[in-house]
Amino acid sequence: MFFSQAGARPRMWEASPSEHKKWVEVFKACDEENKGYLSREDFKVAVVMLFGYKPSKIEADAVMSSVDPNTSGILLKEFLDIVRKKKEAQLYRNEIRHIFTAFDRHYRGYLTLEDFKKAFKQVAPKLSERIILEVFREVDQDSDGHVSFKDFEYAMNYGQK
C-alpha cells in the first residue's frame, strides 16, 4: 500500500524528564500499599489519571497477559514502557488527524478525489493522476467516493503492526 511505503511511522518517542517524573508519581500513587507493582485495578486507575479514560477489559487483559508471570502485577519498568508506548500511539494518531485535516480543506470530515489530487500535487507534484486515483480507490475502503478519517487512519497504519 502506498502510505506504508511512505514510512509514515515515526521513530520511538521519548518522554521529557518532567513527564517521566509524572508517570513515576502516578505509579506510586496507584501503588497505595507500596507493593512495588500495580494490580489490574491499580493499572486502570493509572490510565484514567494519565490518559483520561478507563481502559476496556480487552486492553487490561492484554496488558496483564504481557506481565512476567513470576510477579504479581505490573512493575515500574513495565509500567513506564506501557505508558511510553500509549503516549507514542496517541501522538501518532494526532499526527494522522493533523494530516487528514490539512487535506480536508473544506472541513467536511471526509476527503474527495479532488482533495487527494490537490494534496498530492503539493507533496508529490510528479505523481501521475492515474497513481493518485489508484491510491484514492485503495484508501476508500467502502467505495463511496469519500475517504473518511477511519479509512485514512487505516491506510496510514497499514503494514505497521
From TrEMBL:
PROSITE patterns: EF_HAND_1 (PS00018), EF_HAND_2 (PS50222). It comes from the Eukaryota. The keyword Calcium applies. It holds the Pfam family EF-hand_8. SUPFAM superfamilies: EF-hand. The keyword Metal-binding applies. Residues 18-53, 91-126, 127-161 form the EF-hand domain. InterPro entries: Centrin_CML-like, EF-hand-dom_pair, EF_Hand_1_Ca_BS, EF_hand_dom. GO terms for molecular function: calcium ion binding. Keywords: Calcium, Metal-binding, Repeat. This is EF-hand calcium binding domain 11. It comes from Balaenoptera musculus.
